[in-house]
Design brief:
The chain is of the alpha/beta class. The chain has a domain of 65 residues. 20% of the residues lie in helices and 21% in strands. It is built from 2 helices and 5 strands. It is flat.
């Protein structure tokens, strides 16, 4: 049996994936666990408000806020900011966290 070698395949050029991504609207995720107080949530909402109000050359960013407190749904969110609430942890008197 004789082995035959086929011609090498020509290189296929792939477009730069970062170039395609650069034409899309920015997407930003912010997370706060909020185990003690709502300060982290309020700070992230302030950041989201500034980000959503910014005028970037690619357009206004979409902001996704993750929060570990159901109370997060009580706060007003800026246009372009969505919210996902996660199961929360509670901080015990000894400083440990529990579900």
């Amino acid at each position: 049996m004789t082995a035959t070698r086929s011609r090498p395949r020509p290189l296929r050029l792939v477009a730069d994936p970062t170039a395609e991504r650069a034409t899309h609207q920015p997407r930003i995720a912010l997370y706060s666990h909020d185990a003690l107080g709502l300060g982290h949530l309020r700070r992230n909402l302030a950041l989201a408000g500034s980000l959503c109000a910014s005028t970037h050359q690619l357009g206004r960013p979409d902001v996704l806020l993750f929060a570990g407190a159901l109370e997060a749904t009580d706060f007003a969110r800026p246009d372009g900011c969505d919210l996902v609430t996660l199961p929360s942890l509670r901080k015990d008197a000894d400083g440990s966290y529990r579900a």
